[in-house]
């Protein structure tokens, strides 16, 4: 194991996959000359050249559209969206082209394509540079969605996404880029579609992912003995296809469920998980399911306002305490 | 043009025409579901341009895409079966009229979104360039698509990267039910090429010879690494926007005038007859063969089974595949 930042872990994945397969290339805004706004592409252009590390015009529609065409033409494109918020500019390409092509054409085409989408709140990005949008894309059949919470999975899931013959949206939280974590030496893949149970317990299942998973970990640390052996913590890692079995198995054991994400609570991934658990394991629940997510407002700029809208550790702590004491 | 080329052009135009007229008839008879947009009157465009392409070259098409697929060499039986929603269709019944594709011949799909194929062609051309496999791409789209952002973004990107792609704007004068001059700020869409520093060419889209000549320039330029071109072909949509369109937005006389004096197949026959390039026997033989071929396509479609309901769950993802 080595300690590297989340951004360096993604860079290792890019380097290894580009060296392994000459069909892999990356394009996006400010990636070759600048190395990406979070340093996540630093040095790639020097190593692989400007043909395979392509700076594009500020044309998200064309970047994603051309990525689709390049994939159909035999390449494996990795597209950097700059900010996940800008997926909106390329929405037709994601909604009507990328997600439909394989199915709509009867399975004639493989579409190996990775959209890297830096999301989430960091450094007061305000309304158009802070969003967590996975639920919007989860609703569209035909695209896989992953959201790593740490350096190890950042590398492992990116490599898995590049090797996946289907389109994958890779949400990478901007606030995680500079955080350090342990990454295994040598070849390391995190399988898409597998959640990870990182802490075992018998009284409460907490499901989270991306940056908010680290907030849940922080909450558990603060709670110390209060949650030891009681809280079972699941890092979802993949949103689509979701590892429903791992969640259900845990809920059947703990009988309580808390879901935490940074994205807006209304219509979010937590709503989907809640519904699935209600459909398949409601008889196991000893307390109502609790969801924590952002309040349904655009992300405001000023730090105290941003903290008001986006879930904080305190809210997670009180939800965990409440659920551990709850009885229907 | 040698006789073989002329006969090939005639056969392709007639295959498209007879296919489309038959689809019209079968749709009205209630045999074909969905939204169907016919290519009648624009046959010379797809015919001439696809004749300049290799099987491995790419095209992207539109909601009005049957003609492009046929000209690129698609199998009319599998096309018709797709229109009928049968499991023997190109997309096993999952696509229908607006989503016919044949990836084995570089036909990267019709597209239900106006302008949706433009950047897919740009990307296919990028793949051709990076893989250095000599493949070029053609994107067919209409006058309506020239007002979409995909047009601007795609042409600009192809121009800066000098990609081997040809943007073919089939100006059939009607964007759905809106006359193109009411939605487009310029008379000639080709002039927009100057905004991207690439050649803008105009062809008479109802003259297969002229389309071929102009497209040949663009194709040669693309193959030599000279980058993209914008080719506007002036044509006319003689059918409604879709089968069943009441067409209250234009005068019947306008259509009759086009049918009488500007039909691409009539004009071709006139010319090859006047210049003694093809005999009426040769043309008639093609007619008979094409009618038979389309008849067989319809029978193939009619006799093919509908997909089993279990097939609705197939083809979403490649499973267990390693890229």
Helix share of residues of chain B? 40-55%
Order of helices and strands of chain B: HHEHHHEHEEEEHEHHH
* Overall radius of gyration of chain B: 19 Å
Task: Tell me the domain tally of chain A.
Answer: 2
Helical residue percent band of chain A: 25-40%
A few lines on this structure:
The complex is a heterodimer of chains A (328) and B (323). Chain A is an alpha/beta fold and 328 residues long.
Written overview of the protein:
The complex is a heterodimer of chains A (328) and B (323). By secondary structure, chain A is of the alpha/beta class. Chain A has two domains: 2-183, Rossmann fold (3-Layer(aba) Sandwich); 196-325, 3-Layer(aba) Sandwich (Rossmann fold). Helix content of chain A is 37%, strand content 21%. Chain A has helices spanning 6-20, 44-48, 60-72, 91-98, 101-104, 134-138, 151-163, 210-223, 244-254, 269-281, 303-309, 313-325, and strands at 2-5, 24-28, 53-55, 76-80, 113-119, 144-146, 167-173, 180-183, 196-199, 204-208, 231-235, 238-240, 257-264, 290-294. In chain A, the strands form three sheets. In chain A, strands 3-2-4-5-7-6-12 form a seven-stranded mixed β-sheet, sandwiched between helices. A five-stranded mixed β-sheet of chain A has the order 9-11-10-13-14, with helices on both faces. A two-stranded antiparallel sheet of chain A has the order 1-8. The radius of gyration of chain A is 20 Å and the shape is globular. Chain B is an alpha/beta fold and 323 residues long. Helix content of chain B is 42%, strand content 10%. Chain B has ten helices and seven strands. Chain B has helices at residues 3-28, 43-51, 66-72, 76-83, 118-131, 149-160, 208-223, 252-261, 264-274, 280-303; strands at 58-60, 137-142, 165-171, 174-175, 178-179, 200-204, 229-234. Chain B starts with a helix and ends in a 20-residue tail after the last helix. The mean pLDDT of chain B is 97. The chains are: A alpha/beta (328), B alpha/beta (323). At the A-B interface, α3, α4 and α5 of A face α5 and α6 of B.
């Amino acid at each position: 194991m080595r300690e590297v930042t989340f951004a360096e872990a993604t860079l290792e994945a890019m380097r290894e996959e580009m060296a392994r397969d000459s069909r892999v290339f990356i394009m996006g805004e400010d990636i070759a000359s600048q190395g990406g706004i979070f340093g996540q592409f630093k040095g790639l252009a020097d190593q692989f050249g400007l043909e395979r590390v392509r700076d594009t015009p500020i044309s998200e529609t064309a970047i994603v559209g051309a990525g689709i065409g390049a994939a159909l033409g035999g390449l494996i494109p990795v597209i950097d969206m700059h900010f996940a918020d800008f997926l909106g500019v390329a929405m037709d390409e994601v909604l009507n082209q990328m997600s439909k092509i394989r199915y709509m054409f009867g399975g004639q085409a493989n579409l190996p394509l990775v959209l890297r989408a830096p999301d989430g709140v960091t450094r007061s990005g305000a309304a158009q540079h802070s969003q967590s949008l996975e639920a919007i894309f989860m609703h569209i059949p035909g695209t896989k969605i992953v959201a790593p919470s740490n350096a190890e999975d950042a590398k492992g899931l990116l490599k898995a996404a590049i090797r996946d013959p289907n389109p994958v949206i890779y949400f990478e939280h901007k606030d995680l880029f500079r955080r350090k974590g342990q990454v295994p030496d040598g070849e390391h893949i995190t399988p898409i579609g597998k959640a990870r149970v990182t802490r075992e317990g018998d009284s409460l299942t907490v499901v989270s992912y991306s940056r908010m998973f680290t907030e849940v970990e922080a909450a558990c640390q603060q709670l110390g003995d209060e949650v030891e052996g009681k809280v079972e913590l699941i890092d979802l890692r993949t949103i689509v296809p979701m590892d429903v079995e791992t969640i259900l198995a845990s809920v059947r054991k703990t009988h309580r469920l808390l879901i935490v994400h940074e994205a807006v609570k209304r219509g979010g991934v937590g709503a989907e998980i809640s519904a699935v658990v209600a459909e398949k394991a409601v008889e196991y629940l000893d307390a109502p399911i609790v969801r924590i997510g952002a309040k349904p407002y655009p992300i405001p700029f000023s730090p105290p306002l941003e903290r008001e809208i986006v879930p904080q550790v305190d809210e997670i702590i009180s939800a965990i305490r409440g659920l551990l004491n709850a009885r229907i | 043009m040698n006789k073989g080329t002329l006969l090939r052009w005639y056969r392709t135009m007639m295959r498209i025409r007879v296919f489309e007229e038959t689809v019209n008839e079968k749709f009205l008879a209630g045999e074909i579901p969905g939204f169907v947009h016919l290519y009648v009157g624009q046959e010379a465009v797809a015919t001439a341009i696809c004749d300049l392409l290799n099987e491995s070259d790419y095209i992207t098409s539109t909601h009005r895409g049957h003609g492009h697929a046929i000209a690129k060499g698609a199998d009319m039986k599998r096309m018709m079966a797709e229109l009928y929603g049968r499991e023997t269709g190109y997309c096993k019944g999952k696509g229908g009229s607006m989503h016919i594709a044949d990836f084995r011949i570089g036909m990267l799909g019709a597209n239900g979104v106006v302008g949706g194929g433009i950047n897919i062609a740009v990307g296919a051309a990028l793949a051709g360039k990076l893989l250095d496999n000599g493949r070029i791409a053609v994107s067919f789209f209409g006058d309506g698509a020239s007002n979409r952002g995909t047009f601007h973004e795609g042409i600009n990107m192809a121009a800066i990267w000098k990609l081997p792609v040809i943007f073919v704007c089939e100006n059939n004068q009607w964007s759905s039910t809106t006359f193109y001059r009411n939605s487009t700020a310029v008379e000639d869409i080709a002039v927009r090429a100057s905004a991207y520093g690439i050649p803008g060419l105009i062809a008479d889209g109802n003259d297969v010879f002229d389309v071929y000549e102009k497209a040949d320039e663009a194709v040669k330029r693309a193959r030599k690494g000279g980058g993209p071109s914008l080719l506007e072909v002036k044509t006319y949509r003689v059918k409604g926007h879709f089968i069943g369109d009441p067409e209250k937005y234009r005068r019947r006389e306008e259509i009759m005038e086009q049918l009488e004096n500007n039909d691409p197949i009539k004009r071709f026959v006139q010319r090859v007859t006047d210049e003694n390039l093809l005999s009426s026997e040769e043309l008639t033989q093609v007619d008979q063969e094409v009618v038979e071929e389309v008849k067989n396509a319809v029978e193939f479609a009619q006799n093919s089974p509908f997909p089993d309901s279990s097939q609705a769950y197939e083809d979403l993802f490649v499973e267990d595949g390693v890229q």
